[in-house]
Amino acid sequence: MSFFPSRTLAFYMAKMLMIRTFAVLAMLVLVLQALDLLGESGRIMAQEGNGQGELWTYVSLRAPQLVARFLPFAVLLGTIITAATLNQNSEVVSMKAGGLSAHQILAPLIIASMLVAVASFLFNEIVVAPATARLSAWEKVDYGPIPAASNVRTNVWVRDGNNLINAKTVTGRGDNVLLQDIVIYDRANNGLRSLMQGKEARFTGSGWTMTDVTQFNVLTGAEEQKASISLGESLRPDQFTLANVNAEGLSFLELRSAIAELKEAGRPTMGLESSLWHKISGPLSSILMPLLGAVAAFGLARSGQLFVRAVIGMALGFAYFVADNFSLAMGTIGAYPPILAAWAPFMLFFLIGETVLIRTEE
Questions:
Q1: Element containing residue 216 per DSSP (H, E)
Q2: Strand extents, DSSP E, 73-143
Q3: Is the separation of the CB atoms in 105 and 96 below 8 Å?
Q4: Nearest-5° angle of CA 172, CA 175, CA 176?
Q5: Parallel, antiparallel, or unpaired for β 153-160 and 163-171?
Q6: DSSP structural state of residue 201
Q7: Is the model's pLDDT at 75 over the cut of 90?
Q8: What does the DSSP assignment read for 139-191?
Q9: Which parts of the chain span the membrane according to its record (predicted)?
């Protein structure tokens, strides 16, 4: 009945998995970061004033995304390497001869993967989400000066009747929204009548006050400058703050708050709800990896099928990632209910892993 009959053995196996997992993760991130930097360095250096410092800034913002994305895959490879090593050295045979079942052998690996899952969730919330939001804002300004505000939204477009409004940066929430570098395209009958540019615009409760305004009349060619004007009585602040919610750039609590605001505004939220649930199911996928890769641990190494077993474990892991991405995409477009989109692949491959493990044990 005890899943950990030997404390020494449990720590030994958990240590093997952790060392191999993070070694594989470091190798993957190093290679992928180098390839990604080669592809983006041209765009970064094309911006006047950018140099080596901006390249390192890009690396510091991009690397957390790579770590979060490939950590479950690293756990899978770490499990396969650990299991194959134990099998090759006949340590699994010794454990089974000592009376351990397949689940008891895997228990230390699953506990270690649980710790990885918790660390992954915290890492996503504390590091990955802010880095993703900042990198997204930086990319939208073509790697120019990064806005200082942490809750900044860049290059936001809003339609007000026939008119189009573009704000280069949007900061704040609710009635404290601040628009900067605004351009208003006044249109009539599918034609442009005037172009209005302003430095800042603030919500006053019943409308907007825009300062340092320059208005160009397309019909007459006249240009007029004003210190401030009032406009946009029909425009709401949430049209700018909720115009493009980036689920990956928000933490779990921030995304849940944004979903609540969207629901109050009467907008669809199924896609974002799928991403919200996936912020939990994604890190928890690390727990599945020892179960899917465990097929490499069983069977006699001298039978010559160890490599085939390792390939089967890797194929199961790849199949999970494909199913997970497909299900999340279906949830994003509203084809799947949010909970089903986030949790169905996890439950399906948990059952598949258990089935393969039991059949292997038989």
A1: strand 208-217
A2: none
A3: yes
A4: 35
A5: antiparallel
A6: E
A7: yes
A8: HHTTT-SPPS-TT-EEEEEEEETTEEEEEEEEE--GGG-EEEEEEEEEEETTE
A9: 63-84, 105-123, 306-323, 335-358
